[in-house]
Structures are given as C-alpha cells and as structure tokens.
Amino acid sequence: MKILFTLKISKEWQMKQQEAYPNDLFFYEKEITNFKQLNEMDCIVTFGGDITPDIINRATQLKWIMVFSAGVDGLPRKEIMGRNILISNVRGIHAIPMAEFIMSYLLHDVKQLQHFYEAQKNKEWEFSHPVVELGNKKIIVAGAGAIGSQIGKFAKVFGMQTIGLNTTGHPVEGFDQTFAMNDLAEIITDADYFVSVLPKTKATTGIYDMNFFQSLPKNAVFINIGRGNAVEKAVLERVIAEKTIRHLYLDVYPDEPLATESPIWEATNVTMTPHVSGHTDQYIRRSMEIWLDSLAKFKNEQPVQNEINLNRGY
C-alpha cells in the first residue's frame, strides 16, 4: 500500500509503523496540494480539513481516508460517496479529555471559582459566599456515545444523577437512565445541568431552540462541547441577553472563531473556551493506536474501527 500522512507524527511513530508494515510505502507531506504522487495513494491519513473535491479527483487510486478527528462534516461527501471511498475516524479518543472538561465546568460552577477569583482580584475575603456540591444534582447528556458515556461515569463518581439521550434510548454505561432524543422536551424540566455532545448533522442544526431553553429550569446550566450548529446564533444571543437560564459554558459556537464584536465575549452569564475541550497530550498516541489496528484489519479485509456513514454524518 501507498499511504500519505498530511499530519505530523514523530519519527518514533514513523519508525514503528514502517517496522510493522515493511512492505508498505509511507509518505509525509503537509501540503497535500503540492504532492506529486497523489494519484498513486491508496490511503490518506489526515485531520480532514485538506481533503477537497479536487484532491479526491486527483487521488485516482484512493480507497480509504483515515481522519485523525471525530468530526467529518467538512469532507466532500458527494465526491467520496461517488467513489465509494472508505472513511474512518478516531472517535473515542476525545472521551477522557472532553469528560474532564465537563467536570472542570461543573466544579467551577458549584465551587464558585469565578466568584472567588474576582474577590481575590479585589482583595475581598468572601468567607460567607455559598458553595454547594455536585452530589444529587441531575445532569442530562445529549449524545450518549463514547464521550457522553465517559461524562456519565465521571459524574457518577461525584454522586450525580445521570441521564443520557441517544437516538433510540438504548442503555449506555454511565447513565442511570437513557431516553431517545425524541423525548427531549419531556425530560429537561428538572435538569440542573444539560450537556450537548451532539455532532454536526442536518438533524442537529438548531435542535436547541427558544422553546428548549425556556423549558429548562431558570436555575439550569447549559454546556455545549459538541458542535456550535446545535444552537442558532440568534437564539444563543437571545438566551444570553434575556438570561433565560442561569449560566452557559460554551466551547463551540455557531461561527468560529467567534467574531470580536460578538456580545458573548462580555456576557457575565457565559464561561467561554475556544473549542479546546478535546485537546490532550495523548491525542496522537491514541489516534495512532486506532490507525494501526485499523490498518491491520483493512489488510485482512475486516471492518476497520469507526467506519463513517456519510449519509448520517457520523
């Protein structure tokens, strides 16, 4: 096989995979548009953003695209499906870092760390300011896959009530109960925390409308680490401006990077991070483990890990 990496991996990983597959040719080229042997490649390993319709058309021997990311919504779907090219990703590697991010948000909230940080800057001894516990608080997680399940497991360590939402309502480890997404409106009325880990698809675009936010308890907290398309810009800004719920923790936004003129930057009821909840120092290691396992399966004509159905978008 001829395999092109358009992302950077260490010399150590390059040597490991070459030793494991001595008969295969591995190429490393960051600028894929300049790669002269593109038409000879059987497989491209990429973060996904450099795969365009032109690249698909030029890569005439391409059989497989391995995406070192969970999101595949930017891939040229029409051209890929027309050629029946296999797409797989590294879904699952984000579970621990993103679940840790959720726990950091939750603890930041109940332990009132922002309040105490402001008090420190003002040299105020806020001894009487109330803090509470996560125990017995209800957390609802929309998107009960690998990431959602890990969030549920971590939340249960803190004694939280855990509710998961997925397409069918089938049971998932980490959740006391699971429901189908169609039951969303019926189960959110007593949520303390609502977490969205939904991918970007046609079905998830604008799924959280004003009616959704108005159905949440006034004291609820909304957290989005999935994709920003789940809340339309106008709805998000209205919820923030009208203080429909108590607080929002946002790692993703309808438009990224967030425009400097956006009112979200200065909103006191929003805690922001710049789409970094999936970042980790273990990213390449976990991705390479999935890749090498999938490569072995591909060669043996077995199903690879995390094959993507582009009709669904995940």
Automatic annotation (TrEMBL):
Residues 104-277 form the D-isomer specific 2-hydroxyacid dehydrogenase NAD-binding domain. Residues 33-309 form the D-isomer specific 2-hydroxyacid dehydrogenase catalytic domain. One of its GO terms (molecular function) is oxidoreductase activity, acting on the CH-OH group of donors, NAD or NADP as acceptor. InterPro entries: D-isomer_2_OHA_DH_cat_dom, D-isomer_DH_NAD-bd, NAD(P)-bd_dom_sf. Keywords: NAD, Oxidoreductase. It comes from the Bacteria. Pfam families: 2-Hacid_dh (PF00389), 2-Hacid_dh_C (PF02826). The keyword Oxidoreductase applies. PANTHER family: 2-HACID_DH_C DOMAIN-CONTAINING PROTEIN, D-ISOMER SPECIFIC 2-HYDROXYACID DEHYDROGENASE NAD-BINDING DOMAIN-CONTAINING PROTEIN. Belongs to the D-isomer specific 2-hydroxyacid dehydrogenase family. This is Uncharacterized protein.
